[in-house]
Fold this sequence. Notes:
Layout: H1 3-8, E1 20-24, H2 31-48, E2 52-55, H3 74-88, E3 92-95, H4 99-105, E4 111-114, H5 122-130, E5 134-138, H6 149-157, E6 163-167, E7 170-171, E8 177-178, H7 183-188, E9 194-197, E10 203-204, E11 213-214, H8 219-228, E12 233-239, E13 253-254, H9 258-272
Parallel strand pairs: 1-2, 1-12, 2-3, 3-4, 4-5, 5-6, 6-9, 9-12, 12-13
Antiparallel strand pairs: 7-8, 10-11
Helix pairs in contact: 2-3, 2-9, 4-5, 5-6, 8-9
Amino acid sequence: xxxxxxxxxxxQSYDENNFFLVAGPCVVESEELIMEVADKVSGICKNxxxxxxxxASYRKANRTSAGSFTGIGDExxxxxxxxxGSTYKLPTTSDIHAHEEAAIAAKYIDILQIPAFLCxxxxxxxxxxxxxxxxxxxxxxxxxGPAMKFAVEKIKNAGNDKIILTERGxxxxxxxxxxxxxxxxxxxxxxxxxxMDVTHSLQQPNQxxxxxxxxxxxxxxxxxxxxxxxxxxxxxxxxxxxxVAKSDGANMLKLDLLEGLLRDLVELREVVxxxxx
Length: 277
């Protein structure tokens, strides 16, 4: 595990050989929701020895329809994410969407996440790097793993080597994504930890209804394949009732199903760790 990740998880007791988990609801809908999810997930991860990062977007800037829910207000939502971190002693993450947001978000959040569609935006990457925070860049749906070296170089050239890369699927036609698991070892060659975004890789975007679809029944399949191919971490959006979630409900994991999946993945990780690829 990279030293900056060890520093991040200093308040947690965990198995050094485990994957780490980035999980939470897609967006901050309310204080009650994010506290419920953080409480449940942190308890599960503590029992299983999984280092945990709480995730919730303070705003969803990339929505299909102009009428879709985007958030409850940026600084209100950021403050709630920070409250989750201080209450449960957890590192936190959220998306940023423009270079001027980086310094503001860095006051509240431990990891600045760069959305996939914005992974080539130089000013955004540089602004995130200059905060000194960890920067997690999601691989664009239009890029290969090897091509992500340019995003890494931009951040390092700005004086920051605390970088995570995240695989989240590749565009397949107009309304589907596929996962090329070669991207996990390919992106690790850039010297960064690599996370598999399990739930977003199962999206079915660009639906004519204006609401993104998904295949949540395959969450276990993608997660297990990611562990088998050596992912350092997993990203899973989860909600007590995805059917009423205000964003990405079609591809989120029901909160009650998370513990069973994580138990299976911990066992799989123990097996995989015995083999050298």
